[in-house]
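Priority: low. Protein: Dicarbonyl and L-xylulose reductase. Input follows.
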Amino acid sequence: PDRSFSGRRALVTGAGKGIGRAAALALSGAGAQVIALSRTQADLQSLEGTGIETLCVDLGDWDATEAALSKVGAIDLLVNNAAVSVLQPFLEVTKEAFDRSFDVNLRAVFHVSQIIARQMIARGVQGVIVNISSQASQRALQDHAVYCSTKSALDMLTKVMALELGPHKIRVNSVNPTVVMTDMGRINWSEPQKAAAMISRIPLRKFAEVDDVVNSILFLLSDKSAMTTGVSLPVDGGFLVS
Ligand code: NDP
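Result:
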């Protein structure tokens, strides 16, 4: 078996469900010591017996996040995956949806990354950060004004973090998937006509699988991408070139 991440400690946010959960399990399977952070205790409890450590906190809560991360210990690999998608027509966007989305999808990435990058620098390790963005960062999608805005900002944050953390030997990249049928994907894309319209715009004519995204996350976390920083890697079947 591939044990290429042995000796590394990884923190994955939003690891209770979906892509984050699969990434946490894959990293653990490849030898990393994994800390799965999420919001719902039951999801984390279901990871018991896998050897994965868990941390239950709402990343929308700044102070609770800081308190939780103070106990997390040394981290070499960080996956900023937690996000919410609240779809509303632009004219009906609420303050609550705006604030919650930016707090979780963007502000928490700043905060978690600051805390982890500071201790990576203090320890002198060659840390790696992967942010989970979306094709929605680079294309306008109906009812996605808030979500697209958070992910577009996340792509730029990825670049500035790469610029400033590079001299400390920390790499920062994002993966930008098309639709994946996780809970988030099912809520937003189960309507057959809506799904068919999206699939018709994807050159490979299908949505991404969770494993497609996880494989790209692991590549960007690994030494196989040692000279790559500041990029957004599409996992989109070609949507962004269509
Ligand atoms: P899911 O909704 O299936 O899972 C998201 C996970 O993040 C859940 O465990 C959720 O916990 C957790 N989470 C959400 N908010 C918080 C919070 N405030 N604090 C802590 N944990 C939180 O989403 P996906 O797996 O589909 O998405 C993962 C990433 O991939 C996201 O960044 C998303 O934007 C991105 N993405 C997804 C696509 C898709 O079509 N699915 C397409 C492109 C990008 P809980 O359920 O308890 O709130």
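The helical segments are 18-29, 41-45, 62-69, 95-123, 145-165, 183-189, 192-200, 210-221. Residues 9-180+210-229 form a domain with the Rossmann fold fold (CATH 3.40.50.720).
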